[in-house]
Specification:
CATH architecture of the largest domain: 2-Layer Sandwich
Largest sheet: 7 strands, mixed
Shape: globular
Oligomer: single chain
Distance between the termini: 14 Å
Radius of gyration: 21 Å
Strand content: 15-25%
CATH superfamily of the largest domain: ATPase, nucleotide binding domain
Order of helices and strands: HEEEHHEHEHEHHEEEHHHHEHEHHE
Length: 397
């Protein structure tokens, strides 16, 4: 038997596994690295996050990514090189994290690498009926495995598409295993660049869907108008503005918001061009920059509330666990909390998972299921999503 296959078999047989989950989102601020100890699998999954860090990206690398992300026309050589470079960079970051944490690579069983999404193309967005759903993440996992000496799982979204899904959101799979409660309905709201929620009823089928922009348009506006800033820290900018009703109407007018759940989206739709076109359609030559910021904050908040509210109204003693960078925006959170009252909103910290680490942890959980679990479990609860094991396997030798 191949020694790598033998090693993988031994890992699958263990009662618990140490798995590093990696996530790099649309904010491009850095790589989330979560070292998790995961016991069991399926309904018996328990996770302890032993270490977590967001390792910042160098400005030059971030600028290289911006040249290709969510653009229909890119330099193919540049794309090819960045695929390899991202894998090398992520492998190097893991090694630096292990050194910082004084942890030997032999202590780690698996790496779960999401990669960097550079284009997301569900059929409802590309509108070419003869072509399938598609998504593309870069960051070659063979480089990660070779650099670290650790078996690496990657490219999770492709199996989801192959089985009939859109490749996103994948949160439902991990959310189901970690957050389901027997006596009440649970909502998981994640506000990253794109906002999404998972609804896990105590009895019944799980739903997971994107709602629209999370932080992405707010971040774009800050970067376009406030030199040296990348996001609206503590909503300081938005609080200085007044909501512009005309702009809010134009932002919400896209057909995406009328599509049935589940659905996915990305920066391919909600980008600077989307924002500029919405401003242009208001008929105003110029809207004060602080008013635009306040309106974008409300846009994100309202589209989230409108998405979750109908499920909340039908729920039994619901609770909402919140994660992602948007939960640090008080103006955004205050509006959502007010509109969904009396539903209790709490951080995922109450479940032992730091909010900023949640997505990296979820991919570690997906890798654990691929190696040790059974996809049939998902078939019982995820009626609108394919019940599959996800992740390609890269051996270090």
């Amino acid at each position: 038997m191949n020694q790598n296959v033998k090693r993988l078999y031994q890992i699958a047989q263990k009662k618990s596994r140490n798995i590093i989950g990696l996530m790099s989102g649309t904010s491009l601020d850095g790589l989330d690295v979560a070292l998790c100890n995961i016991s069991g699998h399926g309904n018996n999954t328990t996770v302890k996050v032993e270490k977590f860090i967001t390792w910042p990206y160098a400005r030059g690398y971030r600028e290289k990514l911006l040249e290709i992300i969510s653009k229909k026309n890119v330099d193919l050589e540049n794309l090819c090189l960045l695929h390899e470079l991202t894998g090398l960079l992520h492998g190097d970051i893991i090694n630096k994290c292990l050194k910082k944490w004084k942890t030997d690579a032999l202590h780690v069983d698996l790496i779960a690498s999401h990669g960097q999404t550079i284009y997301h193309a569900p059929r409802h967005l590309h509108k070419q009926k003869d072509l399938p759903n598609a998504t593309l993440q870069i960051g070659d996992a063979d480089h990660i495995a070779v650099q670290t000496g650790i078996i690496t799982l990657s490219d999770f979204r492709q199996k989801h598409i192959a089985a009939g899904g859109e490749g996103a959101p994948l949160a439902a799979y991990g959310d189901l295993l970690l957050f389901k409660e027997s006596d009440r309905d649970v909502f998981l709201l994640n506000i990253g660049g794109i906002a999404n929620f998972t609804f896990i009823p105590a009895k019944g089928n799980v739903l997971s869907t994107d709602t629209g922009p999370g932080n992405t348009l707010m971040d774009h506006w800050v970067q376009m108008n406030f030199t040296g800033f990348t996001y609206d820290d503590n909503a300081i900018i938005a609080k200085k503005g007044t909501i512009h009703d005309g702009l809010l109407h134009e932002l919400k007018s896209h057909p995406f918001f009328s599509l049935p759940f589940p659905k996915t989206t990305g920066l391919e739709l909600f980008n600077r061009t989307y924002l500029k076109n919405a401003i242009s359609r208001t008929g105003k030559n110029k809207i004060p920059i602080y008013d635009v910021m306040a309106t974008l904050n409300r846009f994100t908040a309202e589209t989230i509330v409108q998405s979750v509210k109908k499920y909340i109204q039908l729920s039994h003693k619901p609770i909402m666990y919140v994660s992602g960078g948007g939960m640090h925006n008080p103006m955004l959170m205050d509006f959502i909390e007010k509109e969904i009252s009396p539903v209790k909103m709490v951080s995922t910290t109450q479940k032992g998972i730091e909010p900023d680490a949640k997505e990296a942890v979820l991919f570690a959980v997906l890798a654990n299921e691929t190696v040790a679990g059974q996809p049939g479990l998902f078939a019982k609860h995820l009626k609108a999503m394919p019940a599959v094991s996800m992740g390609k396997i890269s051996f270090p030798t």
